[in-house]
Write a structure and sequence with these properties.
The chain is an alpha+beta fold. Helices cover about 35% and strands about 25% of the residues. It contains 5 helices and 5 strands, in the order E-H-E-E-H-E-E-H-H-H. A 5-stranded mixed β-sheet has the order 4-1-3-2-5, with helices on both faces. A hairpin with a 2-residue loop joins strand 2 and strand 3. It is globular and about 35 Å long.
């Protein structure tokens, strides 16, 4: 199966508080589960960096919707390539809110996602960043709900 990975950046059109971010993630996870798209949304100081993985036709449809979404502007595809496997398998949409100090160890995060050099560094070190996120995000940050919903 041929997979495509797209990385894009954008700027929030509104100030996203935690509730807004959770609502966005809830919707994204629902649609991405249906479309078999995986990835992670990185947020810091009103900027987004999103990594999306899936079949090319599914990502084309998602990109079309994302480019029309009024919740963000300055939409820019930074990296677009075919890959043999997913970095974020089974992540309908993980979330790394880099305003959270516990994630500040990723290279360049402290200086922000609006700096092209920081974004380039994150892309160049994507496998390392993916490993860091796998090791440091909580189940809830990855899936949006608690591991044991019966409690």
């Amino acid at each position: 199966m041929k997979l495509r990975r797209i990385v894009y950046s954008s700027k929030a059109s509104i100030k996203f508080n935690k509730r807004d971010l959770l609502d966005l993630l809830h919707d994204s996870r629902a649609y991405n589960t249906i479309d078999n798209i995986s990835g992670v949304l990185i947020h810091k100081d009103g900027y987004f960096l999103q990594i999306l993985e899936g079949e090319p036709k599914d990502l084309n449809n998602l990109l079309s919707r994302l480019q029309k979404d009024s919740r963000h502007s300055e939409f820019k595809i930074i990296d677009d390539r075919f890959v043999s496997k997913r970095m974020f398998l089974n992540w309908a949409m993980g979330c790394a809110d880099f305003d959270d100090p516990s994630l500040s160890m990723i290279p360049g995060v402290l200086s922000g996602l609006n700096d092209p050099k920081v974004i380039e560094e994150l892309i160049n070190r994507l496998p390392e960043v993916a490993t860091y996120l796998h090791n440091n995000l909580t189940y809830q940050q990855i899936n949006g709900y608690k591991e044991d919903q019966n409690n």
